[in-house]
């Protein structure tokens, strides 16, 4: 019987192959033919058309050259599709990284960004192999909404310069200095640039409304480029700011680094890894909901880590799964990861053949693209709903939102998670209940309602006490339980503690019980623990809670009978 149970358990536990086999292998095993390749080729082309202007816009918004966004989508996107745990995930530069990357580049230079991204990739691979990917889902929802809205605000602020054509000698990366610099340059507004920005945004919105299946972002960028070139508009372009863009991919290279440099960029690497894990797994969840499939979270994180290392050493920026491009991939009829790989191949062909044309693209058009993206990122309805739901949720939401904008992303997420955890523990501690004493036994009429057998007898002797704890008994609830137990001023001959409604207990609560039991023993009281569940019993490992100190019985009735 034990051997059978052990074998069944071993079969139910996922193997290494179950957790880390890329979805590409799964798709090929299912049978992948010419029809599937045709569907993936068309879907990959559709995604590439969306990714082309978006990758350049995100890179420019982050303070690096537009070609680095394309390198990221080509190298990182290909590897994420090749090795990832999602059938439809599209990897590339994400708008969520704009503020973070801009700050890292300003503080440590592009070499510092490369080093931080490589370290972040190694962290993601480690998290994946340690099977910690499932824990990302425990980030409170107000934290997710808060930092996403904060990132959207940061993106909007970073695009003010190009939207209005402001002339700045230097644009700080941090939010408050950036706002001050933009305000000081308010007198350099260019009406022509504003007009082009409005036309670009309006084009995107109109095309999406009238022709949802058309590539609105690319149409807006091409239209603005033609308008600028044919009319000779005096606006800033990619070529005027960044110079000529070379065709082809750079050779892989690591920047020079030292232990001091690693220590300096390590906090930024953690921020990149954390945001990359959250963003990619959220995107995978969205893909699961749209396709009815199920992704492998830990395999996806390993692929994200490898993709980040490769993208960084090939001249790119941090890469992650992108929700908008992944959704486009599914709607375009993709069958599997080949679509994402082909999307990178299409972008590579563009870089090899048509890269010089990028110099003519006006920056105002790309700023318009990012404004639309930022507006879509901020879930305004959910933000308003959380503000109205409860004071605790609103507090977590606003703290995360404001810290993300005015301090940094890592602080915002970290503080939000800690604050949310403390508020959750407070709620759990308040939910625990403890009743006891003779009155509890005489007035206990709820047992017949919830199915628990009634305690034998309606009246107990004065030297017998029965208490029941209901709820998770953990360190946050210890003080509440101790307050009631400490009121047992006159220790009885028999003390019974009913654990039948306790699903969990931790070592702090067990230690508090041990001290209480020791106090009862000194007074000569015999202690019974009734209805302790097996997994709760395993927490009672302290010497004062073992069999010689406490009698464990299946029910209160058995305890009273045993005590005579």
Automatic annotation (TrEMBL):
Domain (STAS): residue spans on this chain: 462-563
Subcellular location: Membrane
GO cellular component: membrane
Protein's GO biological process: transmembrane transport
Keywords recorded for this protein, A-Z: Membrane, Transmembrane, Transmembrane helix
Membrane topology: Multi-pass membrane protein
Annotated protein name in UniProt: Sodium-independent anion transporter
Main subcellular location of this protein, as a coarse class: membrane
InterPro entries: SLC26A/SulP_dom (IPR011547), SLC26A/SulP_fam (IPR001902), STAS_dom (IPR002645), STAS_dom_sf (IPR036513)
Transmembrane spans: 41-62, 69-90, 110-132, 139-160, 180-207, 214-233, 264-287, 345-375, 395-424
